[in-house]
Amino acid sequence: MNTEQLYMDSLVRFALPEMQSKSHVIDVKSSVDETRVFWILSTLRFLENGYIPFYIGCNSCNKGINSTVEGVHFQCLNCGNINGVSTKRFRLSVELSDATGELQTILFTNEVYKLLRMLEININPDCINSSHLNDKVKALTFIVALKIVRPNIHSKAKKNFSVLSLSFPTDIPTCSDAQSTVVHDNVLPNSPEGKRKLIGGENNDSQYKEAHLPDLPTIATTSGKNKGKKHQKC
User: Fold this and answer.
1) CB burial readout 97-111, b (16+ within 10 A) else e
2) Which of 71, 151, 190, 226 could cross-link with 155 by S-S, CB 3.0 to 4.6 Å?
């Protein structure tokens, strides 16, 4: 994944979040429409304690695999990538809330990187104690795009929520790093599009909302490094 893919949020680029009709958390929780994109204004709270959790998954589709080794080459049966490589994928449980209520969801790898960039945190995610991030976000409001997703067979929840996009409202200052994001497709820095100071990445992670990855097939190791789910030295 190149830098442009990692830090450009295609949905936010073209959807103009501040122009979208906003819903409330209670609207999202009460809906059963799995095709609709809900835009909400919400605060964000991290529910994890300790370092940001991760699992080992496919580098293409982010599906979890039964391995504790990064750098394993394999063919992914989920997305069909014949050159799949096992890699570290982050998952951060969060609570989104407004005046009508709150809901819990998960930020996956790309959303985690987006958020850290928005907060001007230039540290590898596995070196960050997620409980310390709450001080950074407690006074901030986010525009969040959500969809309702059907839980998998291992879930106890009746519905899950997929985070499609994160951004700041235009009237809330963003970090200097976000302001320096490369502008593409002739979007001028001082235009309404440029002022949105968008950052982000692809959304493949959001398809996989479950904390447990049971009964996954074991793959044969052809090459590997960084064995075990240990946080690197920071």
Assistant:
1) bbeeeebebbbbbbb
2) 151
Predicted pLDDT of residue 201: 39
- The number of angstroms, rounded, from the C-alpha of 204 to the middle of its chain's C-alpha atoms is 9
For residue 131, give Cα distances in angstroms to 66, 106, 167, 196, 224.
28, 15, 21, 28, 31
Distance, CA of 8 to CA of 130 (rounded, Å) = 23
What six digits make up the tokens of 8? 């450009």
Question: What are the CA-CA distances from residue 198 to residues 161, 162, 177, 229 (Å)?
Answer: 22, 19, 10, 32
Query: Distance of alpha carbon 218 from its chain centroid, rounded?
Result: 26
64 within 8 A of 89, measured Cβ to Cβ = yes
Closest CA to 218 of 79, 56, 60: 56
Question: Which residues make Cβ contacts (< 8 Å) with residue 72, sequence separation at least 6?
Answer: 85, 86, 219, 221, 222, 223, 224
What's the confidence (pLDDT) of residue 66? 86
